[in-house]
Design goal:
The complex is a heterodimer of chains A (about 120) and B (about 110). By secondary structure, chain A is mainly β. In chain A, strand 7 and strand 8 form a beta hairpin. Chain B is an all-beta fold. Chain B is about 0% helix and about 55% strand. In chain B, the strands form two sheets. In chain B, strands 2, 4, 5, 9, 10 and 11 form a six-stranded mixed beta sheet that branches. Chain B has a five-stranded antiparallel beta sheet with strand order 1-3-8-7-6, with no helix packed on it. The chains are: A mainly beta (about 120), B mainly beta (about 110). Chains A and B meet through strand 4, strand 5, strand 9 and strand 10 of A and strand 4, strand 5, strand 9 and strand 10 of B.
Chain lengths: ~120, ~110
């Protein structure tokens, strides 16, 4: 079956612009996570959805960052007034609700969106 | 706040060598620990997941151990191959179920043919 997909794969924008990054999780997965990975660093947690609601948004760096998941499937990460320091790979992951053969703890990652702010 | 450290940051070995990657974490109250592989331009692939009650997990040439009380884990790769070249990331979760992961910075491995 299809894995987690993210679009676009690459995004170049200018400082001050608004960007949207999309994540399509594995069908049926109730949990969805956004992470940010800067060059030479490990992924850092941004926000986690359980269904349609943000269960934990403590990793969002400031109020320029916002994410939605209106129907409990696709999620969009929105960044306003982009800054050069926002340049990174934005990773999305999804995990199942449990009860089947998949463990709830297993997170399946997408290929990421590489964002470059000039 | 949980912090995860991985040593070394980079490692280059000739093909066929056995090698060990190290991971340490500051808060021993973890639920599980995972090792991931990341290829350039790709997402993360989960290699092994060790529950806090377990001591080790094995998959093929990979063996991961966990010493929760000392806050350490190792990933052992036997008979390394050029295809093993990638960045290996260690991550811990603090509670059961769906929970964000805390990652280390990774170890970049190069296996030379």
């Amino acid at each position: 079956g299809a894995g987690v997909s993210q679009t676009p794969s690459n995004k170049v924008t200018e400082k001050g612009k608004y960007v949207e990054l999309r994540c399509d999780p594995i069908s049926g997965h109730t949990a969805l996570y956004w992470y940010r990975q800067s060059l030479g660093q490990g992924p850092e947690f941004l926000i986690y959805f359980q269904g349609t609601g943000a269960a934990d948004d403590s990793g969002l760096p400031n109020d320029r960052f916002f994410a939605v998941r209106p129907e409990g499937s696709v999620s969009t990460l929105k960044i306003q007034r982009t800054e050069r320091g926002d340049s990174a790979v934005y990773l999305c992951a999804s995990s199942p609700s449990g009860g089947g053969f998949e463990r709830k703890e297993t997170q399946y990652f997408g290929p990421g969106t590489r964002l470059l702010v000039l | 706040k949980q912090e995860v450290t991985q040593i070394p940051a980079a490692l280059s070995v000739p093909e066929g060598e056995n090698l060990v990657l190290n991971c340490s974490f500051t808060d021993s109250a973890i639920y599980n620990l995972q090792w991931f592989r990341q290829d350039p331009g790709k997402g993360l692939t989960s290699l092994l997941l060790i529950q806090s009650s377990q001591r080790e997990q094995t998959s093929g040439r990979l063996n991961a151990s966990l010493d929760k009380s000392s806050g350490r884990s190792t990933l052992y790769i036997a008979a390394s191959q050029p295809g093993d070249s990638a960045t290996y990331l260690c991550a811990v979760s603090s509670t059961s179920g769906n929970t964000p992961l805390v990652f280390g910075k990774g170890t970049r491995l190069s296996v030379i043919a």
